[in-house]
């Protein structure tokens, strides 16, 4: 497989990991996080500093990146998760920007606004595919478990959830922490794929892109998030010829989705044994219907 | 030097104020942050620019045209991007996403059609700044300050002293009940957007004169946003106060701490306010937060 | 119905993406890749880079091509973004399979893509990237596949310092630079070093971030320090804004700049403010030997030339010479030829590549003065060593 195509798949997986966390936090738990790029930045820089300054083995650096994201989410979540929807969104936005600016100012360590070039490109296709599959499976199971249902309860009606003894704050914290971990992991992979990082790679446009992927695929569906990551990473490459217009189209598509089908492509549909069986029986019913129609016509 | 930096801070604060006011107005009625507000400013600026350079109209007329143009664009934006969501009572997140989509669309549409080059407003005012001893105050800054104050005064008068204003305020408290009282919500929303758009239009022209006109001008929205949050989301005087506080803090941070810290200070300020006093300096908390 | 339509469009696009629309390789053409900022605020230069290259390629093809084969130019827009640059360069190497790449004008982006071409083994010639780290990222290490056609920042920092010290007889300098730009920080470092070696004093050292439009805070601090000259090594757009604001604040010191200044847009935006300033350039677009080509450029593209076009023209001449000397279009062979290239006569001077640094040795710099609202040749500086 040519380097170009495997590169696209790697990028898709990187986006997917970040989107996975967001899907859990924003889609299932209902906390609008506009600062995912901040977690990615943390993961990217921590893992890079480990591999470049301490010759750490890549898997360790990856884990450290994810861990860093998780650890950051704890003090951040404490004051902000209590806030209402839009305030939380604003706070996470502010956090991501502040993170970027702090990185820019710690020049001695992080190379400042010019970033760190020459990062060893450890990210390879098999590794990231395995890791991605693992976490998709993990999150999928979390979501379909009792915990997942509690998250949905928090999203739908916090007061009611509290009333049935669901610790809403703790669930939000857990989702936030998982999101932080996945974001950091994604950032670590990104750093070692592109080979360099700089703060401008982790700004508001990047956070926005990730949210758009979550919405596009369907906020209430992990499968949707996967699909969206695939389509929205590959699509810009396909449309490369159209270039400047492609961003125009992108913006228009985003607005259109919101207006026409805000549930996203898949809404709440999840890929599972049940849903596949469901689809199959629907298909069979259609086929039978078609057969009967043909028979009826033949009789005339 | 402190005095000069204060002047610098106030001059940029005034620019922020013009944008923050329109932004806050929309927020107070519709309860959402219009991230595409900066693009209205940008388009208004281009309208004014082309009016001045292609149509050769006098300066005052170009501002008027920019106001009208931006107002119309704002109304269109509402109709296309937000109306369907509002009627469906969609959650806040959808509005924000739609706003971001609009922002990306308009920015890049401008880049592709009008071009990415920077345009400079022709010098309408004499370029010599006023000097008071060691202080330098640009004429454009005085103009911006004056127009900001006037716009704010007019807006305040409109909102607190006219029937239309009462209607707007009623709608901002509770759209449903207000509509029961015979207020047409669609009309109110349209008017609010038109007002916000007009202030953005003026802001665009003034900003374009002070700096230049380019498709990314909308990036200023985030500063307006911070200003509005600091002053109190939903409060108009708060937006203005927040804008000046932001402008002065930023400038002093850049001058006396480090020029790289400018933006960091702005965000830190915002986060501090959100955590310590979420209502902002002048806002009032009308909803429970937990 | 509409929803279904949109859905099928999306699915179709996805299929297209994964089936890949690869062009059939034509054996009779030599493929040269180009990337640059064709959109965004560096578009003026990226487009000039591309247009100069396009005109050069067209002229080469009209004269029979290189070794009898026509040259095919493949261009991509990197939007001024480093990530995008990495992306498009990968595409040029893996998908379009070019023999050589020309581009771009930014040190930051060339530093980012250097490892990519190193891995992909395709030589790249930067037109305008002046930071030394582009070819020599650190002491003792050389990027085998990266070359450039312009002089480097240590030299322009040196020239600026000498010019200010000797010609302008200044002793106190202030610096305003862009902290997020490898180029700007590099020039500032080298200027400071050279200046202090000459015995000059740096009275103010202020920075700003990309995207800033208001420099009054920094300029006020600079004004307090009462410098003789202010060195502003960044790009024309910010230069225009900063210069205007400086004059607004009543600063009268002479402003000095580097090769980020030259652009007709600078004069459009701030002619009054930059009157009486000087900046360093790679060549003089008004030099007599450039005029004929300049007219051809004007005729072909309907706009006046920018310095970038000259640099990309010279870069293409380098590629042509390398191919002709080595007799091959294989990227690795071209690379070897480039390393030892000598005697290429470009518009910016004679190009001799130094095998130890992949930089052109002996390139002169010109000092341009902005007088009467126009760029005017002031002085030429001796070649760098």
How does this model look, in words?
- The complex is a heterotrimer of chains A (300), B (290) and C (385).
- Chain A is mainly alpha-helical and 300 residues long.
- Chain A contains 13 helices and no strands.
- The longest helix of chain A is centred in the middle third of the chain and has 27 residues, at 168-194.
- A two-stranded antiparallel sheet of chain B has the order 1-2.
- Chain B has helices at residues 2-30, 37-53, 59-87, 92-113, 139-161, 163-173, 175-180, 185-210, 221-231, 236-257, 262-276, and strands spanning 130-132, 135-137.
- Chain C is globular and about 65 Å long.
- Residues 13-26 of chain C have low confidence and may be disordered.
- The chains are: A mainly alpha (300), B mainly alpha (290), C alpha/beta (385).
- The interface between A and B is large, with 43 and 46 residues.
- SS summary, helix count of chain B: 11
Counting helices, strands and paired strands, the structural category of chain B is mainly alpha
> Strand count, sense and closure of the main sheet of chain A?
none
What quaternary form is this? Answer: heterotrimer
**E-strand count of chain A:** 0
Shape of chain A: globular
Kindly report the spatial arrangement of strands forming the biggest sheet of chain B.
Answer: 1-2
Helical coverage of chain B, percent range? over 70%
Task: Please give the CATH class of chain B.
Answer: Mainly Alpha
Proportion of beta-strand residues of chain A = under 5%
CATH architecture of the largest domain in chain A, by name, is: Orthogonal Bundle
